[in-house]
Amino acid sequence: MTGQVEITFVDAICRTLARAMREDERVIVLGEDVAEGGPYLVTAGLADEFGRERVRNTPISEGAVCGVAVGAAQAGLRPVVEIMFIDFITLALDQLVNQAAKAHFMSGGQLTVPLVLRTQGGSGQRNGAQHSQSLEAWLTHVPGLKVVMPSGAADAGGLLASAIADPNPVVFVENKSLYFRREPVPDPIEAIALGRAHTVRIGRDVTIVALSRMVGEALEAAERLASEGVEAEVIDPRTLVPLDLDTLAGSLRRTGRGIIAHEAVTAGGFGAELAAQLQAAAFDYLEAPIQRVGAPFTPVPVSPPLEDAFRPGASEIVRAATVALEWGRYDVEPWEKGALAP
Amino acid sequence: MDGDVAQGLLRTMWRIRLFEERVAQLKRSLQVHGLIHLSIGGEGVAAAVCGQLRDDDAVYSGHRAHGHAIAKGAPVDRVMAELMGRVDGVCRGLGGSMHLVDAAHGFMGATGVVGGNLPLALGTALTAHLQGTDQVTVVFFGDGAVQAGHFNETINLAALWRLPVIFVCENNGMAEFTSREEHSTIERVSDVVAPYGFERTTVNGSDVPAVYDAFGAFLGQARAGQGPMLLECVTYRRRGHYEGDPEKYRDPVAEQEWAERDPVAQLTAQAIAEGWIAPEEAGSIEAEAGAEIEDAVRFGRDSQFPEPGLSAELVYAK
After folding, report:
1. A178 and A49 within one domain
2. Among the three residues A127, A153, A187, which one is the final residue of a domain in this structure?
3. Using an 8 Å Cβ cutoff, are A106 and A247 in contact?
4. Which residue among A28, A107, A113 sits closest to B101, beta carbon to beta carbon?
5. What is residue B252's predicted lDDT score, i.e. its pLDDT?
6. Alpha carbon distances (Å) from B112 to A15, A94, B34, B36, B47
7. What is the CATH number of the domain that holds A282?
8. Which of A282, A320, A327, B34 has the fewest beta carbons under 10 Å from its own?
């Protein structure tokens, strides 16, 4: 019997964790303050139901805690470890990059690391440069890791269920701006396979590939573009690794114009990889260079007007779409057109 | 210590010694690959610790791992094939000297990042604790790892959670090219963990019966679910940091010092003196080990290199 409930992203994560722990004794949750619910109450109530052995508070020792999760996964548990802010993943990278990602490979397939590392990133709360970053691109550079970025509550629950069931280390990157919006979610939450993009809106004129929070911004941009007679297609890859390139490239071949939008700094962001893969897959169909929307090349500022200016949103996507749509219509040389990009 | 135990230890130590001496030769002729770190001088610790463990006890090691893997039960022929990059290696040629794994014998892995293995061991010990088994986890590391952040994070967690894990530090007084006094003001690694309330002791790593007894006492406690403990074994690194290391940082090894600290020679002399083995048995143990190592070299040479597609196949578990 499936129905629907209106719950938040945070509730969807918590329900999925609870269900996984109920169904599988091997699932444990560990991290700073997880037994207290954590600063965003994502794990609230889990310790009451499952006890403090399986919902394990840890000291502020990100490196060792991530390593404990790797060792436990190798020995047969299915740990879900929380790194409170993605900014602190720097402290756990040795364990994630050198151990978790490579154990299966280096052991010739003897070891597996069925581990989920949940973390959250993103700006918008005036938290400044060390609590607001979007660092997912670093992780996509490491063979052996999977990287998931849900854009809403239903996807968060469904993708987390698949991440916990996956035999590989999965980094699950949430966005704090999405946490407390109420959204319709299937009840019970259905698992969503990793590696399948979601076409959120269908359109014929321009393809907007958006990650995480930028999916909502892309939908708003699509509404504004529709009022000018432009039909934008919005696609959420959902998982960066593995990547559903076929769905993205198929859309781009139909529309001929592509925008990639993420909250991370544009330079060296995952959009660069997407643009490279998409231009190779759809070069003959492109009417304009693929446009990227992201943050400027600065740390995240605290001052509200500066952070607001830092954060890309619907307006930047509309501007990028306009550049792509008007490409070739200007009476200027191609190298000058680059200056029109946001 | 009795005759059976002493013979078993000597057999393991000779297998490690001759394996590594052979590997040093093979490295010079480029038949084994990559950075090679030998444990000659430390064989007694590997033998005395791993020789008391079960297959389902977990062992983690660092970059100087051949001896630990062999002592834990990894087949020498498949370890040799691994160092040669062959498909019949324990890790199908993808791991190599610094990343040996033999899960069937509980050798859960060597790691090339100094100190990176410490929290992994804690995770395996946590698993045993949560699953209610009496499995014990042992992690080997050098004195160089003690200054790494992971060490202090892991030691704190191990003490806090009281997990059945035994930290075995092989303190050879050298962290890569420099001596311990250039890395830390604390000489004894067992002193570093004192404030955490660890069971801890320091022994002469060349005195194999002493290592055997000290570890055995800790193992009994860990088997009963107690822990953690730290066993510091003061060892002597006979070779450079890696094979090919010009060793400009230290005087040539004094042969007299080596003779006093060579654990194979020490245990052999003691075993004969105590009547644990007959003098002729010592020679036959060495000869048997030598024959096994030559078989391993042949096994490695006869094994094929992996197909190129193997790399892509093993990035993700299915």
Report:
1. yes
2. A187
3. no
4. A107
5. 64
6. 39, 11, 12, 11, 21
7. 3.40.50.920
8. B34
Which helix or strand (DSSP H or E) is residue A27 part of? strand A27-31
Residues B13 and B43: beta-carbon distance below 8 Å: yes
Q: Do residues A145 and A207 both lie within one domain?
A: no
Same domain, A85 and A222: no
Residue A8: pLDDT over 80:
yes
Is A131 marked active-site?
yes
Q: Between chains, do A98 and B111 touch, taking CB under 8 Å as contact?
A: yes
> Based on the domain organization, do A29 and A50 belong to the same domain?
yes
| Closest in A63, A114, A144 to B119, CB measured | A63
- Evaluate whether residue A193 is within a structural domain: no
Note whether A9 and A126 are same-domain residues: yes
Over residues A169-182, the pLDDT tens digits come to 999 999 999 999 99
Cβ-defined contact of A74 to B128 (cutoff 8 Å): no
Of A153, A187, A221, the domain-final residue: A187
The label of the residue with tokens 């790691």 reads B111
Q: Where are the domains of chain B?
A: 3-298
Question: Where residue A77 sits, what CATH number does that domain have?
Answer: 3.40.50.970
Quick check: is A141 catalytic?
no
CB B130 within 8 A of CB A77: yes
Residues A154 and A28 in one domain: yes
ipTM surpassing 0.85, yes or no?
yes
Give the residue from chain B lying closest to A167, CA to CA.
Answer: B317
* Nearest chain A Cα distance for residue B121, angstroms: 6
Instruction: Look up residue B54 and give its DSSP letter.
Output: -
Paired residues of B169 in beta bridges: B141, B232
Angle between helices B149-161 and A62-74 (to 10 degrees): 70
Q: Is the Cβ of A111 closer than 8 Å to some Cβ of chain B?
A: yes
> Phi and psi for B174 in degrees, rounded to 5?
-130, 125
Domain interval for residue A251: 198-340
Task: Locate the chain A residue with the closest alpha carbon to B156.
Answer: A59
- Mean pLDDT of successive 10-residue stretches along chain B, which has 318 residues: 95 98 96 95 97 98 97 98 98 97 98 95 98 98 93 97 97 80 90 94 97 98 96 90 81 74 96 95 96 98 98 98
**What pTM was computed for the model?**
0.95
Report pLDDT digits (tens) over A74-103: 999 999 999 999 999 999 999 999 999 999
User: Between A216 and A331, whose confidence is greater?
Assistant: A216
Chain B environment of A168 (Cβ under 8 Å): 316-317
**Interface touch A74/B154, C-beta < 8 Å:** no
Residue A85 exposure: Cα atoms within 13 Å on the Cβ side: 15
Residues 6+ apart with CB under 8 A from A67: A95, A99, B116, B118, B119, B120, B122, B123, B150, B154
The shortest CB-CB distance from A99 to any of B94, B103, B120 is to B120
Instruction: Based on the fold, state whether residues A108 and A242 are members of the same structural domain.
Output: no
Q: Which of A32, A82, A131, A174 is catalytic?
A: A131
CB within 8 Å: A105 and B314: yes
Answer yes or no: do A39 and A127 share one domain: yes
Quote the radius of gyration of chain A (alpha carbons, Å): 20
Structure-token pair, residue A15: 């329900």
Q: Please report whether residue A46 resides in a domain.
A: yes
Per CATH, is B3-298 categorized as 3.40.50.970? yes
**Residue A331 pLDDT class (50, 70, 90 cuts):** low
Average pLDDT, chain A: 95
In-domain check, residue A192:
no
> Could you tell me if residue A203 is inside a domain?
yes
Give the number of domains in chain A: 2
pLDDT 10s digits, A26-67: 999 999 999 999 999 999 999 999 999 999 999 999 999 999
